[in-house]
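Re: beginner question about structure tokens

> Can someone show what the tokenized structure looks like for a real chain? I only ever see the sequence side.

Sure, here's an example I had lying around. Input first:
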Amino acid sequence: MSATLVHRGPDADGALVDGPVALASRRLSIIDLETGDQPIANEDGTVHVIQNGEIYNYRELRAELERAGHRFATQSDTEVLVHLYEQHGDGFAERLRGMFAIAVWDARRRRLVLARDAFGIKPLYYRADGADLLFASELRALPRGDLDPEALQAFLAFNSVPGPLSIFAGTRKLPPGHLLVWEGGKVELSRFARPAPADAADVRREDEDELAEELRARLRDSVRAHLIADVPVGVLLSGGVDSGLLAALAAQESAEAVHTFSIGFEESSFDELEDARSVAAQYATDHREVVLRPDAALLLPALAEAFDEPFADSSALPTYLVSELAASHVKVALSGEGGDELFGGYYTYAADLLALRVGRLAPLARPVVERLPSSSRKASFDYKAKRFVRGATLPPLERHHAWKEIFSPELRAELTGRTPNGDPVDLLRARFAETEGAELLARLQDVDLGTYLVDDLLVKTDRASMAHSLEARVPYLDPLVAGLAQALPTRLKVSGLRKKRLLRKAAAPLLPRRIVYGRKRGFSIPAAAWLRGELEPFARDVLSPNTLRRQGYFRPEPVTRLIDRHVAGEEDLSRQLWGLLAFTLWHERHVERPPGALREPRVTAAVA
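And the corresponding structure tokens:
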């Protein structure tokens, strides 16, 4: 199991075997390079811990524990965990500020405790089989089993597999903010943390300028904590406000020049290197960049190898490559995940509010909108308009999902040749029901925080970075920052088509105006154009009828029709085709091949 995860920790490995438990850890050395190897035990060797992640308040916790009489043998953040468990039992996880997947073995009580951070930044899979429990950071370290039909349906709906499901039946993801306790051969789950919308009454009365200053101060504190390391730290810089603000704050908090890394595209509507360069120049960062070319034969197999589940967010491609670039210079990089979900950065949020006012008119406009020609430009008007009129009359949660849905139930049935059992949207409905009484936009943001962020964006960032042994840290997903964001009223997040209002106000003194008030940016790729050009032959080859019949999940005829419609410009179906490509390539590498360590293809020919 440990050998399959060497890419996550190439610097050291450790193991413990004690009666019924065996623990193994791979280490990417970042804090306490000399004495921080895992597992780490308490003074008398009765409690052992391994963790994946970083604890940013470990120094404060250590001082508190030392005052209580605990003695430390290392300078690592991991050692804090064993003493914190001794002091507070299962309540130890509630006191942590950081990103983590943790296993604690209590030899005296013969119990194992697993914990995952409140936002699900770090992955943790488990498989309970009778009295036995297996767990790991990636599926590649666990037995495979049969594919889960419910997970496959969810993948087709979302282009990722939402927790607690995994693609393999019998294997599950520990939900964010949860503990799993194994004792006496039995497994119990409990929730210890649940970030949620807060009462906006107090924030509503505060001055916007004061709130912007407070947000800037909290972000600065978070960035300062996320820079803690005994190795160089960089920033993944997209050219947008989220990552630009991180780069600005990191530069102000660092004694040395900050490393920044960006990726660009040959297609002009997707390339944002100029904005990234302007931030890098303003703060005199040590800046590096690459330009991506559409070489599918190299790029898509590399992604399929790096991701242990079917995963079809095409922005994983630039994230993978910018991580490869960063990993050649630093071991840690800050990334902007969470900024959109917390502060209202998506066009879908503007559409959610717009539909409340004009949604009833959508059926009148639909015949005209549906005839709009399909563009290959980034966030094209025709794509957004068609999505809007198709979903505008639905109930709020279903409407929000419709903006982003990949394959509808009808298309899933046509693809697979069988009627879906259950509805993947029920996972969203369960989350939505937990926040009844809060403002609608806050509830929809919370759904995204608990599903799309966890099971798409954070999966993307974790796998793409760790494939290159790079640790990605996400300062927006800090309790101090999230607590303020989740108490903001709607007007300070989205107003008309203006998004992330307070965050932009906080960033205004630190960044060029065109970045602060420009359109949303990110690591999205020109998939629609590629699949109508250089990638079309590759897509037809990977999704050939022979391959689809051999794998046995998708009917060839509807897949061929999807390709034909997209290539003909009838509709932008790049997200659907990318999903089918991702699944097919994943299946070839993770089901049809023997399990093993990451076999990383070289992709340097695809970048300039």
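Each token stands for a local structural state, so reading them left to right follows the chain. The chain has a mean pLDDT of 91.
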